[in-house]
Amino acid sequence: MTEPSNYWLFRPATPTPSSPLQSSTSVGGPSNTSPYSTFGFTSHSTRNQGLEAKRDLVKVKVNNPLSALSASPDQTRVVVGGHQVLKTYRVSEKGVREEANLKYKQYIHKQSISDVKWGNQYSKSKIAAASNNGYIQLWDVGGGKGKLDRTIDEQGRAINKICFNPMQGILMLCAFQDGLIQMWDLRDRVRPKITFNGRANSARDVQFHPSNSNEFIAAFDNGMIQKWDIRKPNNYERRLFAHASSALTVDWHPDGNKVASGGVDKIIKIWDINSDDNKPTEFIPCISAVARVQWRPNQVDEIASCSFNKDNRIFVWNIKRPYIASYFFDEHEDIPTGILWHDSHVLWSCSRDKTFIQQDIRTNSHRQIDLLNKCGIGWNVYDELAFAIDKPAADLNQIRRSPSASDSGIVEPEIRSQQKTGVSFMTMFDYESFKYLAENYMISTDDILNTCQHNAKIAWEAQKFRTSQTWKIVQLLFSNDTLDEEEKIITNSDNKQVSKCITENFYKHVDLPKEKVLDGMQENEDSLSESEESDEFVTDENREKENVPATQQPPPPNLIKMTSKLVQQTLKSAVRPIWNHESSMNSLLEYYAEQGDVQMCVTLVLVLDERLNVDKDTVERWIFSYIELLHRFQLWIPASAIISSCKIPSVREKNQESTTIYTTCNNCFKPIINSHNGFWICDKCQKLLNPCSICHRIVKGLYSWCQGCGHGGHLAHMQEWFQKKSECPTGCGHYCA
């Protein structure tokens, strides 16, 4: 007896003008005379009416979560597998009917299906089901009812993926969690025919070439995808470092020239497998990790994908328009685990929500572009403003034009754009000067005078004359620190020398400002009054002294003291500004902040350091904004210098992020992490890493290598070699430089 299943058959009615995400559904009771349960359904059509009949939305409910599905060669049946679930269904225009429940009691504990595949040609009546605990079951479903053919025990080695050779159905590939890939000949019941060592932690996916029976491609947990030839099992033909983290899925394009891959890094990448270029031809950014990809038949540029976590939707992308999905399906209530195209319009999928769903892209999908605002604006760091509006602007001088005529004489309607785009070049930001200043400014606090002098010169060369003047003013403001030190050198002996000089020739050599003299006289009014009172009577001797020329008559002692004080004050006031440093600098920083010149604000703060009293939160915002600008212009060295010079902990932590690069063993290709024997020895295979390609000694210091061929050596040796030659020193033929 087979277990009963629940079926839902949704028949699309006439499209309504409602939103693509809004549909009315009326539910009726299941019929007693038919294995199908029919429900009314209203769906918004997302494509023009085609010549092919549209398929109904069909949902099949099972008792446990599903993890994989596969179609029969004639596309009339489908097998789904999951936790203690392995069933086949016959799919027709009327709906879906369960055909066989492939489950034996003695294998219930082993049936946690990780992948399932339906054979082809020789094996068209075979179904292979792989489990997480290392068992592969082969079922014969030729008569409609399943019969267990054999069980392959891999001693607990988890199996991630299996596939049949499209040209030779007797060959089956199995990708294991330990990184090995085995190929079985179904005629041999004892052992695998060939074992391929991917030299990685885990083989996540494997796919045969659609038209070449000797080639297959595999995805690995270290982010690599490898192309193999079964006639050369010792090593792969090509290796691509496809993803920054685990590569989870690969799929051949029907033409056999391109491969799509997806991984945990949330990117779908398209590779020209016949090219020597190690860069993808196209890439599609996704919102979550990519678990499955499947090329759409008869649509050379469209591919479907589903998420590894977080997102229940299935997306259909056009690789020529990678940033917005062309369509998406949202019928599943949990993460989809398997997708395949029944034909160019109908998609089959299964999910952890215990359902198998058949959906037609013409009636059951949503166009994501219809849900987005068609008006957009973007501003880049080079002051270029790009925009798009929903409708083109009306042309007041438009001349009526007759419809164009084709060569056949048939009048064709004029094609008009539905959207208007444009680019405006602004002149509000001088990015050339910004880059020049960032690369040449000094931020040293050791010698403020020289730093300000240098920065003023750099700003002048960049034709930033106001900025140059600002640096000159800052230099003048903070030159007091140097003058204060020099003032301490003046001692009592210096004062005596000054007094002596004034005594000898006071009026001849010193030209004091009138205001200073009057102020000094006012300050010494009491002492002068006392002197006048003592000389109350005028004698002839005093008269004679009054007739002596001023250059020969020594000044009174109190005048000498007053004059010495005035000279010092005058010398100080000649170079020292009378305004307040702190208030002036705060006003200066506020001015440049209002102008949006965060570069000047940050440089001033770093140069003057503790001499300023600025709010730390404000300084932190300035520095982070400046670092972001430097990163946008790819000025990594100035940005690192800014971070290193800053004393704010939250800023300095930026230089402590992502500072570790793990190397990989060239023998077993396992990452070398926390090695106990040194980073030139692999702990897993106990072999030495590649020696220097020139001196053939172990590299224990800086190691430099070519990302193209993988050969390298001591940094100094490689620099010396490539100063004269461009070819790899090992003789591999690769031009590294």
From TrEMBL:
CDD domains: mRING-H2-C3H3C2_WDR24 (cd16693). Residues 522-539 have a biased composition (Acidic residues). Residues 27-44 have a biased composition (Polar residues). SMART domains: WD40. One of its GO terms (cellular component) is cytosol. Residues 1-44, 521-559 are annotated as: Disordered. Residues 689-736 form the WDR59/RTC1-like RING zinc finger domain. One of its GO terms (molecular function) is zinc ion binding. WD repeats lie at residues 240-281. Keywords: Metal-binding, Repeat, WD repeat, Zinc, Zinc-finger. This is 844_t:CDS:1. It comes from Ambispora leptoticha.
